[in-house]
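We modelled the chain as a single entity of 289 amino acids. Its sequence is:
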Amino acid sequence: MAEQVSPRLSNFVRLPKGTTYNYVFSKPHKNKPYILFLHGFPSSSYDWRHQIHFFVDAGYGVIAPDLLGYGGTDKPLELEAYRLKTMSDDIARHTAPFGQFDVDVINNKAEQTLGYPIYGYWHFFNSSDAAEIMTMNPRTSCAIIYPADPQTLLYHLCPKGAIRKFYEKQTTGPLPVWMSMHEGAKHSEIFSAENGGYRGGLNWYKAQMAHINAADDEAIPPERAHINKPTLFLASMNDYVAVPAMQEEQMRPLVKDMEVENLDCGHWTQLEKANEVNEILKRFFEKHV
């Protein structure tokens, strides 16, 4: 939640359509630009806390929203609210993927390339009871979201059906060395039942599997399907889900000017290697601004 990052920097905006976003906002100094930090699943602006404080202190403008379904932002139940184009428009206007998506096709390709599926957990996320299971078992959720050993994801998240078994056994484990008990408790608080749990975040996956975005994706003209701005890809070399080689292969045809920095860490790059990420981002921003 933005409030957890800094009550002083936390803001709320109510959009004309009625949706309320909670976000971190800090004005730049010394003619520095704004930096927009967008989190993933299951996360919130709180997981950018190291970068937010670092770049605010360095004089950069910072915008870090709790995306739709997360943290202090609204958590609508209807899947249509999670259209990527709609959410992108929300962010673009009020704070500053192509082809038919088929998770089984992706998993089959991953098995052929890597020897294991990478998105087996999507079927669990798409189930009707996933949100309740994850919300009501915070210690197990922390154990699979922030595992001390990155290979936990390889065996208990990636294979189809593995994560449900992980919850059925109520598996727990220690937090990684880069996360304190206090920080782990903050994550559980952000995703507590009182704050809406994991339902809003899971709706991003449900919407994708329901092809909510298909029409919007197909409407993008080919000449607009590329990113021409300088782009930085931080590759987590021990990430068994967002596998760097596959990520880079997918991005290269669409991103014309991409720099790659390899980091010896697991999935949560900005948390595990906070200081290193800050320095890499700082060099990139100073180079291109």
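As a brief sanity check on the tokenised model: The radius of gyration is 19 Å. The chain is about 40% helix and 10% strand.
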